[in-house]
Amino acid sequence: MLNCAYDYSLKWRFEFNPLKSVILGYRTELDLVFNLGDKSVNISTETKHLGILRTVDLSPSTDIQHSCRKGRNAYFAIAGTGSCLLNPLTVCGLYNKIVIPAVLYGCELWNGIKPKDLRCLETFQHFIVKHIQGFPKRTRSDMCESMTNLERLPILVEKRKLMFLYKLCEMKAQSLTKQIFIYRLFQYFGDTSRKQHGFIPDVTNILSKYSLLNFLNSYMFTGCFPTKLQWKNIVNSAINQHEKHRKEERMRSDNDFTRFLRLSENNGYDFIWQYAKYTGRLRTAKHVAKLWSTPPTSGNCNLCGHFVQDTLYHQITMCTELQTQRHLLYKRLSEMTSDNFLYTLLSKSDEYVSCFLLGNHEALLDFLTPEHCLDVLNEGFSYLTYCRL
Ligand SMILES: [Zn+2]
């Protein structure tokens, strides 16, 4: 084959660079010498082809690690331009447009992904979302991802693989790629005694995970596949629904998320950053976002020293050390709205009042006009920031 290529290059008068070519020995180690013309070609265990790293063990692990490193560099190139002054939702927009394509380039070919590879992808994005929002490392990753509306990377990989399946199905019948795909597809389903590796078993697993296998079956019998837009909608709705359900399940079964879920139930997870976008009060929003993501903790209050069930709720509504600031806040709230409103608010539980000041207006929404809503929100947030809770 090398001789063929060499003869062809002589015929058409171009040159191969033997230093830029390598031989990959799959399965068996090679101890032969390969020549391209009169120069030898090195034998290697990995090489890049079209920007995708191919290794002899056919595992995508090294490529995934490379991609995450590439993504980290791309992210810091953006972050170095003063992203701390931007709304995290804006930075996430840049991350989606610049970093994600760099990380997921060629991910359609990451077949046989192992749990450690998935962890590598997850860890990469968790680091980024925390950095974007200025959260400490120990903040729960599900919260950080939810607050920026980012999708988990393993989910994006699955979506891309399913879109790649569409591309293969829609290729012209004469193309070699399509012929190989059809051959491998029928071989996978027809000859179950042979274990197949690669894209087809991988995509079949994804299809069955989201109950979409019937589309591939019907394609094999009729040759019909949904259009690009239809398929995109089918894939997005199936995966998003599954993912939303699993995320909620994860969060509801964990006590750390109790406050976060309560605060976001009427507003959406990204409420704080939307608030910052609308009002321009980014520093206040960053402060409140940290409070949103603080898990409920019991212990001694660091201001008054009393043992309390929930430190944050106690400090917002009960702590004697913050009495003066609190009275000022209540006074401003009653001036802004009405005595009746303040009376209704204060008749509720500590937890309720705290959540109200943290942004969940819940049932009291009926008492507030839309303009009051924002003013009350501003006052509450200013109080929380001023008291450095
Ligand atoms: Zn206290």
Quick rundown:
With 389 residues, the chain is mainly alpha-helical. It has 18 helices and seven strands. Strand 6 and strand 7 form a beta hairpin.
Commentary on this structure:
- The chain is mainly alpha-helical and 389 residues long.
- The protein is 59% helix and 6% strand.
- The strands form 3 sheets. A 3-stranded mixed β-sheet has the order 1-3-2. A two-stranded antiparallel ribbon has the order 4-5.
- The longest helix is centred in the middle third of the chain and has 25 residues, at 228-252.
- The termini are far apart.
- The relative contact order is 0.06.
- Zinc ion (ZN) is lined by residues 301, 303-304, 306, 314-315, 319, 321.
Radius of gyration: 28 Å
Fraction in helix: 55-70%
Distance between the termini: 71 Å
Q: Quick one: overall form?
A: elongated
Sheet with the most strands? 3 strands, mixed
Structural class: mainly alpha
**Which series of helices and strands comes N to C?**
HEEEEEHHHHHHHHHHHHEEHHHHH
What is bound: which ligands? zinc ion
Physical arrangement of strands within the biggest beta sheet: 1-3-2
Number of strands: 7
* Rounded mean pLDDT score: 90
Low-confidence segments, given as residue ranges, are none
Measured by DSSP, the beta-strand proportion falls in: 5-15%
Helix count, DSSP H or I runs of 4 or more residues? 18
